Automatic annotation (TrEMBL):
CDD domains: beta-trefoil_MIR_POMT1
Protein name per its UniProtKB record: Protein O-mannosyl-transferase 1
Domain MIR: from-to ranges: 282-345, 356-413, 418-477
Annotated localization: Endoplasmic reticulum membrane
Gene Ontology molecular functions: dolichyl-phosphate-mannose-protein mannosyltransferase activity
UniProt cross-references to Gene3D superfamilies, sorted A to Z: 2.80.10.50
The keyword Nuclease is annotated on this UniProt entry: no
InterPro entries linked: ArnT-like_N, MIR_dom_sf, MIR_motif, PMT-like
Species: Cyprinus carpio (Common carp)
SUPFAM superfamilies: MIR domain
Keyword Transmembrane helix (UniProt): yes
One Pfam family in the UniProt entry: PMT
Length: 599
């Protein structure tokens, strides 16, 4: 007797059943997609098109070196880097030209397999999307066949490019939203910033669907739906977006070729590069400090306040006159002529006292050029390239009625108190001219040959609000010890040393990187959204004769697509090898240019 009988309880045996539905059509098109995209992806074993561009980032990822790419967030590059990592790529390859042969250490198949898989899975996603929109499986199959044999989609899926990955996630986002509308499940990922347009489309659809709920449901139900949509479509994508950057910045902690585009504080947080120069520098800027001043703005290029023993022309090409004083520019390279000395206007000493007297917000200072001993000056003379602004010069007394105007007020923009000390690297400073209230600013214009094509610095009297071009920060810094000019020149040419580590928070780095996010014009292959329409019309035909006739038309279209795919497949797959005459025969129009590379 079993336990149920002994306890007097009635036992009910529940049968366990598992129901499995297999869509053979979906499996078939997925298999065909994998074959057409993965076949021979190791060929050619040479750099193809934009692989020369993305490959550079892969090498930097493998070496954990910081870089910037304005085309999109780091997720796309991390996807490609995953393939490189799994293939054991060490990052050692010179990506300098298209057509360069890959060396033996480059795992070509691993580099190209993830884009190929993404391109393959676009086909079943398109099938599911058409079905989700309410059309028949026949329509979905027709749409898939058109995408399956689209040579351009095949080509961009077979190389280390991001287009197939982008299209995969766009389709996944739209399909996920349609499921979300029913099952409240949505995921989104950005590969390139152009993907934002699809995201905005989904937000628009969500707004329309939410509006339709109002009036049909209770207020509490509507509020719950709004909250769920907000969490799924706003909060989750933001968390994912920030998370990608967090992983990106955690992995890339070494100094690299793009450092100079970032702020001094950002550069100093990276291992090597500026961090080696600035380690151990004094943190507090003091009277007598020797400093280099870098613009906070990195546009048009990062540069440092600079002067040299060359004067402005007496007259410019347009006939306007100048002060003929020493040129002051912004120079985009590190140079000994970038050094300036922070001087107390009330004293003649050029060295730091003991203890140091720190410079605070609101203090009045003079800036003396270290190598030429000219004071930073501005006056009511039109700037050479920006006549609406004042000329900035190194003051020379020509015994004319043009007195020195070389007093500047220190305005620490990111201060936390009204008497905050000017900090190396960390403080963003605006230098305001005492006599004219003009702000020392990078105009962005380049000087002519007489100014060595360096960037123009002006005094802007109509400066308003926060403008990075009018912000400066101390990058390199030492406490001056030499009063004599020759000793000071030797001191300025010597390197700085220190051991103070500058840490920049992740959010500070993240926000700075967003300044480089450029949103390009949307460009998406129209086939993804239009190719299903031929097949979808079939769903609206009711007459058997019409459906039969239209079926013949669809079959003819698919046959013509296959013929085109087959004829152009040598270009798609790069094999078999064709002669010049055979290549010329593939042209549909005389205007087509097919370049033949002879080995």
């Amino acid at each position: 007797m079993n336990e149920c009988s002994q306890s007097g309880m009635q036992c009910v045996k529940l049968p366990i059943s598992v129901r499995v539905e297999i869509n053979l059509l979906l499996l078939a098109v997925t298999g065909l997609a994998l074959v057409t995209r993965l076949y021979g992806i190791h060929f050619p074993r040479a750099v193809v098109f934009d692989e020369v561009y993305y490959g550079q980032f892969l090498s930097l990822y493998m070496k954990q070196v910081f870089f910037i790419d304005e085309s999109g967030p780091p997720f796309g590059h991390m996807v490609l880097a995953l393939g490189a990592y799994l293939g054991g790529f060490d990052g050692n390859f010179v990506w300098n030209r298209i057509g360069a042969e890959y060396t033996s250490n480059v795992p070509v198949w691993s580099l190209r397999v993830i884009p190929a898989l993404a391109g393959s899975f676009c086909i079943p996603l398109a099938y599911l999307l058409v079905v989700e929109l309410g059309y028949s499986h026949f329509s979905a199959l027709g749409a898939c066949m058109l995408l399956l044999m689209e040579n351009s989609l095949i080509v961009q899926s077979r190389f280390m490019l991001l287009e197939s990955v982008l299209i995969f996630f766009l389709l996944l986002a739209v399909l996920s939203y349609l499921h979300f509308h029913k099952a409240r499940n949505f995921k989104s990922a950005l590969v390139k910033y152009m993907g934002m347009f699809t995201y905005f489309l989904l937000l628009g659809l969500t707004a329309v669907h939410t509006w339709q709920l109002i009036g049909d449901r209770t207020l509490s139900y509507v509020m719950v739906q709004v909250l769920v949509r907000f969490l799924a479509l706003v909060v989750l994508p933001v968390i994912m977006y920030i998370g990608f950057f967090y992983v990106h910045l955690t992995l890339l902690y070494r100094s690299g070729p793009h450092d100079q585009m970032m702020s001094s504080a950002f550069q100093a947080s990276l291992e090597g590069g500026l961090a080696r120069i600035t380690q151990g520098q004094p943190l507090d800027v003091a009277l007598g400090s020797q400093v280099t001043l870098r613009t906070v703005s990195s546009k048009p290029v990062p540069c440092w306040l600079h002067s040299h023993k060359v004067n402005y022309p007496i007259r410019y090409e347009n006939g306007r006159g100048s002060s003929h004083q020493q040129q002051v520019t912004c120079y985009p390279f590190k140079d000994v002529n970038n050094w300036w000395i922070i001087k107390d206007p009330g004293r003649h000493t050029l060295v730091v006292s003991s203890p140091p007297r720190p410079v605070r917000h609101g203090d009045i200072i003079q800036l003396l050029h270290g190598m030429t001993s000219r004071y930073l000056n501005t006056h009511d003379v039109a700037a050479p390239m920006s006549p609406h602004s004042q000329e900035v010069s190194g003051y020379i007394d020509f015994n004319v009625s043009m007195p020195a105007q070389n007093l500047w007020r220190v305005d620490i923009v990111n201060r936390e108190s009204d008497r905050e000390i000017w900090k190396t690297i960390l403080s963003e400073v605006r230098l305001v001219h005492v006599n004219t209230s003009a702000v020392l600013k990078l105009s962005g214009a380049s000087l002519p040959e007489w100014g060595f094509k360096q960037l123009e610095v002006v005094g802007d009297k109509i400066y308003k609000g926060y403008q990075q071009s009018g912000m400066w920060n101390v990058e390199e810094h030492r406490y001056g010890r030499s009063q004599e000019q020759k000793e000071r020149e030797l001191e300025l040419k010597s390197p700085t040393h220190s051991d103070i580590k500058r840490n920049l928070t992740f959010m500070a780095k993240f926000l700075e990187l967003q300044g480089w996010a450029i949103f390009p014009i949307l460009s998406i292959n129209s086939n993804l959204f239009l190719c299903a329409h031929i097949c979808m019309l079939f769903s609206f035909l009711r007459s058997p004769a019409q459906r039969k006739a239209f079926g013949v038309v669809i079959l003819a279209v698919l046959c013509s697509v296959y013929v085109s795919y087959h004829n152009l497949s040598p270009l798609t797959y790069g094999q078999p090898a064709l002669s010049s005459d055979e290549l010329a025969a593939l042209r549909w129009r005389e205007s087509w240019d097919i370049l033949l590379r002879k080995r």
